[in-house]
Amino acid sequence: MIKILIAEDQEIISQSLEIILGNKPDLKVVGVAEDGKKAVRLAQKLIPDIILMDIRMPEIDGVKCIKIIKEILPQIKIIVLTTFDDNEYVFNALKNGASGYLLKGLSSVELVGAIRTVFNGGALINPNIAVKVVEFFHETETENFKINVDELEFNNLSKNELRIIKLIGRGMSNKEIASDVNFSEGTVRNYISNILSKLGLRDRTQIAIFAIQSKLELKRVEN
Asked: What span, in angstroms and rounded, lies between the C-alpha atoms of 76 and 4?
């Protein structure tokens, strides 16, 4: 059972989400927060698996909530679900630890699929958002968004590890990566764990950002 906390200040939207998610046998909405302070409080009290987080909320905005919650409870996965795709929101949310950034208006099937993907260790970004992320990191050297890794450890990565980093940077799921490199999903997960450990990164999202910043996703991988 995937426990979900909804952080959304518009009642009609939170109620709709409760209905949609409540109809799925493997999903359970454990709480609803209509402002940022309550979202942090309920996260600590309920320890959900997933938080659906709006960006603009009273008291504490979603970006700050992500930072606070991930510092206290790093195991909780957070998916931003919002109407706002401003660069500052997107990059700070991802930098602070969001595992997904989705725009409202997606179908219920897409939302449920995103929740299950993130719960199983994946990361999801709306295609339009992904384009903005790529463009931003290719056009700016802003240190605030820079993901730094140990250069020696990076140079010691194996060919397979580099290839998987590149595929994560392209937004591919573990299943898609496994098919591309002809490994099992379990093997891919092990590679990702090793990459995180070697590079000192927090999660898959940071791998994706690092891949984009390093332009790894644009370089050809030799077979």
From this structure: 10
